[in-house]
Amino acid sequence: MDFVGFGNIIAFIPFGILIPLLYRITFVRFITLFFLSIIVMETIQALSFLGSFDVNDAIQNSLGAAVGFGAYKLGVRSKNGLRNIVTTAISCMVLLSGVWGLCGIVDKALTKEEGPFVAINKLIDSSGNSSTEKKRIALK
């Protein structure tokens, strides 16, 4: 993942912390509603020509919100307010690094490497002769 993907994840972590702080909500309901709202925003973005519809953005935004939700749930376990904040921040960093690592592994596994194939237009030069014809002419 690149810097833009990292930004898409980081930017939505606060939503994962603030929404469960304000409303009592389960993770499944939260992530479903969040993903649907992001899809609606991506659609509005595409229809208004202010951007493009990109499912990768919606997935990365939802991952960020999920990291924030997990960090919030891990951080609110104690009664001490300062301890909650520190635990949430540390949980957020650990979960973010885990998600970042998993996304890197999945990206590497799904990215196709270029093979030894050469495009046809690379084989034919401007005079219309193919590179194999040049080799035959050179051998004569």
Automatic annotation (TrEMBL):
The chain crosses the membrane at residues 6-23, 30-53, 85-106. Pfam families: VanZ. The keyword Ubl conjugation does not apply. Keywords: Membrane, Transmembrane, Transmembrane helix. Residues 6-74 form the VanZ-like domain. This is Glycopeptide antibiotics resistance protein. It comes from Paenibacillus brasilensis.
